[in-house]
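@channel anyone free to eyeball this complex?
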Amino acid sequence: MKFQKMLKLKKIFDISKKYEIPEESLRPYGDYIAKVDYRLLYESMKDFGKLIFVTGITPTPYGEGKTTTVIGLVDALNRLGYKSLASIRQPSLGPIFGIKGGAAGGGYAQVVPMDDINLLFTGDFPAIEYANNLLASLIDNHIFHGNELGIDSRKIKFRRAIDMNDRSLRSIVVGLGGSANGFPREAGFDITAASEVMAIFGLSLNINDLKKKLGEILVGFSYDKKPIYARDLKAEGAMAAILRRAINPNLVQTLENNLAFVHGGPFANIAHGTSSILSIKLALKFSDYAVVEGGFATDLGGEKFLDIIARLGDLKVCAVVIVATTRALKYHGGLKVNYVEDSNKNLVRGLQNLEKHIENMQAFGLKVVVALNKFSEDTKEEIKIVRDFVESMGVGFALSDVWAQGGKGGEELAKKIVEIEEERTPRFIYKLEQSPKEKIERIAKIIYGASLVEYSQEAEADLKDVSLVGMDNSFVCMAKTPLSLSADPKLIGRPEDFKIMVREVRISHGANFIVPVLGKIMTMPGLPKIPQAVKFDIFENGEMQGIY
Amino acid sequence: MKFQKMLKLKKIFDISKKYEIPEESLRPYGDYIAKVDYRLLYESMKDFGKLIFVTGITPTPYGEGKTTTVIGLVDALNRLGYKSLASIRQPSLGPIFGIKGGAAGGGYAQVVPMDDINLLFTGDFPAIEYANNLLASLIDNHIFHGNELGIDSRKIKFRRAIDMNDRSLRSIVVGLGGSANGFPREAGFDITAASEVMAIFGLSLNINDLKKKLGEILVGFSYDKKPIYARDLKAEGAMAAILRRAINPNLVQTLENNLAFVHGGPFANIAHGTSSILSIKLALKFSDYAVVEGGFATDLGGEKFLDIIARLGDLKVCAVVIVATTRALKYHGGLKVNYVEDSNKNLVRGLQNLEKHIENMQAFGLKVVVALNKFSEDTKEEIKIVRDFVESMGVGFALSDVWAQGGKGGEELAKKIVEIEEERTPRFIYKLEQSPKEKIERIAKIIYGASLVEYSQEAEADLKDVSLVGMDNSFVCMAKTPLSLSADPKLIGRPEDFKIMVREVRISHGANFIVPVLGKIMTMPGLPKIPQAVKFDIFENGEMQGIY
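replying in thread with the prediction:
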């Protein structure tokens, strides 16, 4: 909070002028937030800016400062005279009231107004939830009123959604209490960020595309094993109507008064993990450099952004930034007790994790720059160890000190980026025409480093459903732990000779991807014993505490 | 929709100038919606305007045009040279996607932009839901992590909320699926408009008051029968933080470019049924006449507004407008097949319903004007029958043709209002110091016309809890059907010699009222066989259909 107070916010309409975003396409939400009419994207095609994609090494549970790096890099590029714009995801209330307490960058590299961005913002998440939950209600209502479509209530795949950490809602029975309340059946809630409607929201190119994708959501199966889609319930018109404001990307500013899009929020472990494709494209349209963040490391947000979003959106990439910290490197070298303890041995051993992530991004044929997100405890020797290793791989390295210095601390990184002139279409890891198993195997072996992929009986059955609904040629959106390159969170560093077990394969028919689930994945988190929520407060003068 | 297109919206900042609302206290949501900082209310005390309260006779399920009358009256008063401002509730998504398709007035007496007002608006309802559901999650999380407070999961009173008609969520079991998901228990969702957080939201005078009331919510009881409040879970700070934007009333405009507050949305059958007290007070502050609507008829929104809101907010009332239609009067006279059929016999017989509603408002010592909301089918003879009857009671009568004519059609009503100069503090039906049973009996006998009040065993047990939590001196917020003056929807007209059965008494400890439940009351509606939702659509040019 103190960082925000030290700097003066500018009215969003004033900043947007610098980027030549026409004012009549902006809808204000107070003085410092605006939604941009997405149709602007299709109005006139001019030269688009270059795309910088920011990913990271395998993180500790504390996160390694990717968002902070994105924002600092945008500020640095603007300092160097380039128009630059960030595109990041909107934080979920789940982690805000759970452990994290907020997510909008850190130190002098933040987007503001932070309280609004973290709490409800422009109402996009509630809109996504209402769209989701309207469909859920229409399903049970259809069954209640005679079930003309013959929906088998045991085979309903679609779940309700709420942007809240609430483990009690994971597995529930609905429709109890007598015949007036419908038919009892097993059901559950996912956190909104893990829902298919969120994924669709992030992938849609316009209202018609959104409506079409929503209509294609696989609701479940009928008693005679026919797939039932949202469009069979005529749900997609109302769902899209609910989302009609939300689809327009949100603009805010950095502490150095540069623009950032904050739009969409799919998790990267279970969903695709980047901001909306519309916000990315608008960022490219109005900047020289659009800096886009993917969730977690190269094996999750990285792979998914390049294989799914870049392919779907026909995006070229100028450079990939991999964010590392000495804390995480030491952790991957085996240091467990005290992350910040001086331990060069562990640091050196941990570099193999970074090495794999560099190789992963190079596998897509892309130029990589490693950004070491500086902690005040980092020693010169530690920094040199990382720099020497990265440069020995022939890869660019930059120390990033944006937390403490803002854009100034990102200039080394920005300069490394600007040196890269060429933009490349990623060399995708799999072809859409490959079979689901081939696609899964390529990701597991090339990106994770697995030696073998196995399938549970349930997954084999799911793959038959995938064929049944005609999705053999769809995208693959893997779901696994972010805490390891493998599917086992205990395997730190660069695991080798491990096998992957695909437990199930979920179908996101509207989003057009299948979700192979590796290991235990929570689509509805729980709160810790002392949730961050109990530390929140608000006062008569408008001051708030709890978000940091 | 066509009415909106025929008239030109003005920017909300331009209209607010006319009312001398300082621009720096407005937060825009697009060009035509703004939130007003509630603290403006406490900044300087000037002469407040006069309060006109609009209620109605017992409605048919179609509604008799109260909101339409409110808006037309505001436009009419402005035409006559008085600054007038409406204060109405925000519509719930439940009825919008269920049967009604929207609620923002009708014909030439509407508030706009209607699509926004009806769909998500400025995000107040989601905020109320998140505040509600955060508390729910904290309750189950507390039990999961050791249950230090000893909460008896069988005695949790607090329910989750969602702004959706979804009967399947009325009665559910949560926490299934193994020990990682908590402890199974019976639970359920209410529609947001029926939640205690909505009631508290509507009753709070500032942030501190809001926080205090939220902390006072009765969550349930411990194993040793001690009450557990939200503050015991330290929930109120985060809940109030979520509501920090929502608490500021929303301003929109009528089709004749006059201002209207649309804020808060408690149902009147189960909750108190008027817009927020802050929006009512702000409307009074910035107008000569603030026109406020209560839900349903005098026996529900009417009684509750006068006994609860006017008492709590220390409000004087200039006049009460009772809206009637020949359709509803004929219905109460026994006409069932065709409401608009010419049937003077039924009309005359139905006048007894109107008579009782007039008497009800006179029981509070207030001046009454009856507004007959004109339908195009109404004959001169019918209108004369109603007028003669009303005037024979010594009460003012006005034909209101605002649906077809806008403010011009409300001038007769406005003139009748302006003639009333005196403002009166209502003569409350009960004293807070009376016992709960005395209070309930006074409302049932004086307002409903009941001869006897009985209590179920459950209600008797509930009343012991009321004493246990120290609420013998609290307000009473009755819950009953809106379709009859009695608790039996089949008893039309002016029922007499009937008894009332109090089935249960719910405790809204944070809102400081008890809710005696008479007959079957749904706190979570269901969707009809063909819900309005399936008629919604949205197009690339922003045009929407489904709301009318």
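from a first look: Chain A has a mean pLDDT of 95.
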